[in-house]
Design brief:
Blueprint (H helix, E strand, L loop, with lengths): L1 E5 L9 E7 L6 E2 L4 E6 L4 E5 L4 E5 L6 E3 L3 E6 H7 L1 H14 L3 E9 L9 E7 L6 E2 L4 E6 L4 E5 L4 E5 L6 E3 L3 E8 L4 H12 L6 H4 L7 H10 L17 H10 L3 H6 L24 H16 L2 E9 L1 H18 L5 H15 L6 E3 L2 E3 L6 E3 L1 E3 L2 E3 L2 E2 L7 H16 L13 E5 L18 E5 L2 E8 L2 E15 L5 H16 L2 H5 L2
Helix pairs in contact: 5-6, 10-11, 10-12
Length: 508
């Protein structure tokens, strides 16, 4: 009986793929789930596993372009029964006797649903190697979505088998790895089986293909530099050529060029260039690609304008100096500027509801609550966690929530729920030294307030020149829903509340 292996569906917009490289030859015996070849689409490179055990018959050659659903190869399942069963019997018994007791169950782990609007994720990095023993609920990998990074726990105890590689883009529900379930396998048993798995004699066909083979990212770098993969020694698992190996090779590649150029006519030799001329490429993360796409979308689809004002920060700074020690002693958190700005913004939003609204089709949606998004610069990009119902929170509650969200953002621990929603955004470029900027609206919101650095400047006060700590503030807004009168009045109201913080206590 022959099993037809067809090109799988890899995405809604992908209609064809190209056969990149075969790891098995025509007529070879292959095992179930063994990697046969690489397929390349216009969005990603992925591996094709065997769907049965038997003798491989290749129908498409490397470089061929196939439509989704086309037969790429067949596997003769009857052939393996006649030729391989006597020879393979001891091979199958050896792992069972040498390693921990195996139940025979294979647990397939798929990419979980992480949010309504998220359709694909990127495998950031494996925390456990292929062949490692993993315990139930042990974290085995990190996965990036376009909104956050989350951890993937093991769904069973047993031996881990990688299916997807680091950097692969997977759809929700896509197969990411498999676990060969074991009965209470001790850690020592897993360690004792590691040397056997590492030796060439005991290595299975699923790891042989990696030797001297370049990963998709490494292949692209080597192709751009015109370097053959055979001339590069791999340092990855089982001799696989990693991205770092390819980058090292490209640095050494220009060295022969000057040697060949030396015999060229001396009269036309260019002047030597001092310093390094190396370049490096990095794949954009899902988060970075989504941020880029949304920022361009906002610029193209909204009538965005920015209005500016300046705030005398001396009253707030005096209050902080006077009460910061008592505030921290009582509430266990420092008194920062963000709580003052958040409270002032909430008051102004309730007085000018259009600034707290959004456009939904042909309707305007007005919110009677203030969910304030706080822009935070995280290691993997800009994120905007949300403070829910900030209008009902006290100063210490706001400060505690800001600290909690900022810490989770820097540790890449924010959940999807903590980053969705929001009716208005505050961003503080002043912490990086920005004097003035025009922040971009965080869609589907209609406005964003930008804070900047505090600078001592001479100001005219009652006919006298005084040196005051001043901050420029900017409000970017969607002119389709917010008029100039509303935007300017909103920013003036925020200025009044900040320059006289006692107004926040009495609501005037």
């Amino acid at each position: 009986m022959s099993k037809e292996i067809k090109v799988p569906a890899v995405g809604e917009s992908i209609t064809e793929v190209t056969v990149g490289q075969w790891f098995k030859n025509d007529g070879d015996q292959v095992q179930m789930d063994e990697i046969l070849c690489e397929l390349e689409s216009d969005k990603a490179t992925f591996e094709l596993p065997a769907e049965a055990t038997g003798i491989l018959k290749i129908n498409a050659q490397a470089g061929d372009t196939l439509e989704i659903g086309a037969v790429i190869c067949t596997i003769d399942e009857e052939g393996v029964a006649a030729t391989s069963s006597p020879a393979e019997a001891p091979k199958k018994e050896e792992p069972k006797s040498a390693g921990p007791s195996t139940t025979g169950e294979i647990k397939e782990m798929i990419v979980p649903t992480v949010g309504e609007s998220i359709t694909e994720v990127t495998l950031a990095n494996w925390l456990k190697n292929d062949g490692d023993y993993v315990a139930l609920d042990e974290i085995i990998a990190e996965v990036d979505s376009d909104k956050a990074t989350f951890e993937l726990p093991a769904e069973a105890s047993g031996i881990l088998r990688h299916v997807a590689q680091e950097g692969d883009v997977l759809e929700i529900g896509g197969l990411i790895c498999k676990i060969e379930v074991t009965d209470g396998a001790p850690k020592a048993a897993a360690e004792s089986s590691a040397p056997a798995g590492a030796s060439p004699a005991a290595a299975s066909g699923s790891t042989n293909y990696a030797t001297g083979h370049a990963s998709p990212a490494a292949s692209k770098i080597l192709a751009e530099k015109g370097i053959s993969a055979e001339s590069v020694s791999g340092t990855g698992k089982d001799g696989r050529i990693t991205k770092e190996d390819a980058q090292s090779a490209q640095k050494a590649a220009p060295a022969p060029a000057p040697a060949k150029a030396a015999p060229a006519p001396a009269a036309e030799a260019p002047a030597p260039v001092l310093g390094s001329r190396n370049e490096r490429r990095e794949r954009m993360s899902s988060l970075r690609k989504t941020v880029a796409k949304r920022l361009v979308s906002v610029k193209n689809e909204t009538a965005m304008l920015t209005t500016f004002n300046e705030v005398n920060m001396k009253p707030i700074m005096d209050l902080r100096s006077k009460f910061k020690e008592q505030f921290k002693e009582k509430h266990g958190v420092g008194l920062g500027f963000m709580s003052f700005f958040t409270k002032a913004v909430c008051v102004a939003l309730q007085e000018w509801p259009a600034v707290n609204a959004k456009i939904d089709g042909n309707e305007m949606v007005f919110n009677d609550y203030c969910d304030i998004s706080i822009a935070v610069s995280a290691p993997k990009g800009l994120v905007v966690p949300v403070i829910r119902n900030a209008e009902a929170m006290s100063f210490d509650q706001i400060e505690k929530e800001v600290v909690r969200l900022a810490v989770k953002a820097r540790d890449n621990k924010l959940s999807i729920e903590e980053m969705t929603g929001g009716t208005f955004t505050i961003t503080n470029g002043g912490v990086f030294g920005s004097m003035m900027s025009t922040p971009i609206i965080n869609a589907p919101q209609s406005a964003i307030l930008g804070m900047h650095n505090i600078v001592q400047r001479p100001m005219a006060v009652n006919g006298e020149v005084k040196i005051l700590p001043m901050m420029y503030v900017a409000l970017s807004y969607d002119h389709r829903i917010i008029d100039g009168r509303e935007s300017v009045s909103f920013l003036v109201r925020v200025k009044e509340l900040l320059e006289d913080p006692t107004r926040l206590l009495f609501g005037v």
